[in-house]
Amino acid sequence: MNLHLRELHLDDKPAVVELCSKVWENDYVPDRFVSWMEDPLWLPIGCYEDGALVGIAALQKVEGTDIGWVKALRVNEESRNRHIGSRIVESMIEHAPNLGVRTLWYATSSRNASSMALAERMGFALVNQVGYLRLYRPFPPHPKPSPNYHPLIIDASRLAVILSETPELVGASTIPLAWEFDHVNPDGLARLSKRAEFKAMIAEDGVTKGLYYRYDRERRGIKTAAYGIFSNDRTVFVDMIARILDEIQDSDADRAVFFLGRNAHEWIEYTLPIPEEYVGRKFILYELSLAS
Q1: Phi, psi angle pair for 109, to nearest 5°
Q2: Which of 94, 118, 174, 217 has the maximal Cβ count within 10 Å?
Q3: In whole angstroms, what is the distance from residue 245 CA to residue 140 CA?
Q4: What burial class does residue 59 get, using C-beta atoms within 10 Å of its C-beta: 0-12 exposed, 13-18 middle, 19+ buried?
Q5: Rounded distance, CA 260 to CA 246, Å?
């Protein structure tokens, strides 16, 4: 096995396109590859074997932080079970301090056993997991929102106060936005607020019973509305789902993706008809500290 790992360049794009076409249907990586070359916060690394690209991944630093992401890990089918993914991630770990990264994050699906095993083999620790669900048009029937609840749009600073007073609402030190996470602190929430609008369900006694927020994405003509949903009250949760589905139905989104807090993950299966492939499914965050 003659493996060579190196930083990728623009002239590697044809090889990246070919690799991705065999790994992931409708893969986003070929569309993003050129922009990675132009962004100093990204470092794509490839693994070549005898002149053929057999694996890739990209290291992304979160601007203004010491956080880095391992993203877009792809290994061709013929080269799996040979620890090529581990070799690529190991290279990411070695390069990360040069970019000022001290905390490395890696996200994957609970249905991807090999990806989870890789993260754990490389020393990453599981730090968060949220429910994961996709729904497509036509969206399922759902109850009507209650006139007794009124979502309140809040900013990041207000949300930081709410979560410090009601930490069980999220129940973790990180919070998801689409297929990423950030810290549940003023800086992390401020970063998230640049891409999403937070809505809180606040009871008459001033206690927040629910939180949801939306991030819109369009790729290759497919429009996605991705929601984070958290609640500590089942009735409020059902009302939030009703409002969200009304909102999606009235929009031009082709699909909805839900990232669900602990309670929401349990309650969703009793609220909506869930496709079998998403029953019990979770989106998982792993973390590796590089601090010396």
Answers
A1: -95, 150
A2: 118
A3: 8
A4: buried
A5: 18
Residue located via tokens 């994961």: 132
Q: Please report, as a single letter, which amino acid is at residue 25.
A: E
DSSP string, the chain: --EEEEE--GGGHHHHHHHHHHHSTT-SHHHHHHHHHT-TTEEEEEEEETTEEEEEEEEEEPTTSSEEEEEEEEE-GGGTTSSHHHHHHHHHHHHGGGGT--EEEEEEETT-HHHHHHHHHTT-EEEEEEEEEEEESSPPP-PPPPTT---EEE-HHHHHHHHHH-GGGT-SSEEEETTEEEESSHHHHHHHHTT-EEEEEE-TTS-EEEEEEEEEEEETTEEEEEEEEEES-HHHHHHHHHHHHHHHHTS--SEEEEEE-HHHHHHHHHHS---GGGTT-EEEEEEEE---
Distance CA 215, CA 178 (A): 7
pLDDT tens over the chain, length 292 residues = 688 999 999 999 999 999 999 887 788 999 999 999 999 999 999 999 988 999 999 999 999 999 999 999 999 877 677 789 999 999 999 999 999 999 999 999 999 999 999 999 999 999 999 999 999 999 988 888 988 888 999 999 999 999 999 999 999 999 999 999 999 999 999 999 999 999 999 988 889 999 999 999 998 889 999 999 999 999 999 999 999 999 999 999 999 999 999 999 999 999 999 999 999 999 999 999 997 6
142 Rama class: left (phi>0) / alpha (psi -120 to 50) / beta: beta
